[in-house]
Amino acid sequence: MILILFGPPGAGKGTQSNLICDHLGFTHVSTGDLLRAAITDKSELGKEAQDFMNRGMLVPDEIVVRMVEEKLKLMDGSSIVFDGFPRTVPQALSLESIFEKLDLHLGGAVFLEVPNHLIIRRLAGRRQTPDGKYVYHIEFNPPKKVGICDVTGVELIQRTDDHEDVISARLEAYSKSTAPLKEFYKSRNCLKEVSGEGSAEEVFYEVSQAISFFKNLGKKNRHA
Ligand code: AMP
Fold it and tell me: How far is the C-alpha of 116 from the C-alpha of 40, rounded, in Å?
């Protein structure tokens, strides 16, 4: 099954994707993580993306779409959760063309809803390991020792784009380019909206309900 998880920055897409992978056996495809890895690797793609990301702007559609297509070609038919892709309606349309080419189908799209004031608090207090695998929050989920990952013992960092001056640009990009995806997936009859305000476990319960709904819908459609 292919699932899209979308919503404003700081809605908890990464946290929920990790839970979906751990508990439901999905593979996580985060375009943000792929782009950050490309920057660390100093690849051509990373060089193209870096400036946009540091300024809180979206990376141009064609770069991201190319990257996702390459990734999907390498997938082995396992269930996938897309985190942070698509982020614009043209990306969503390109994804549909890729699905057609590769004979894949969208299982459903889950929108994580979080109010603006909470987004800013969540992003500004977020700290993580440099690879983004372990994520903390200075107030809501602090590590045992300040600035150090409980699991790996490495020093935590603040993402460049989680600094307050960049957060407002990211929120603007979200409302201008990503928010319209809600209407897009509603029109495709495959949207479920979930409140992202509760604890990670509470939100995950709702997200898994949505996934079960999409799974049953898929079975019904196949038998129709
Ligand atoms: P994220 O880790 O999902 O918060 O993404 C961090 C940054 O990566 C975003 O602010 C964008 O600059 C860039 N990015 C990630 N995914 C996309 C995408 N689908 N389209 C355009 N830019 C993206």
Answer: 30
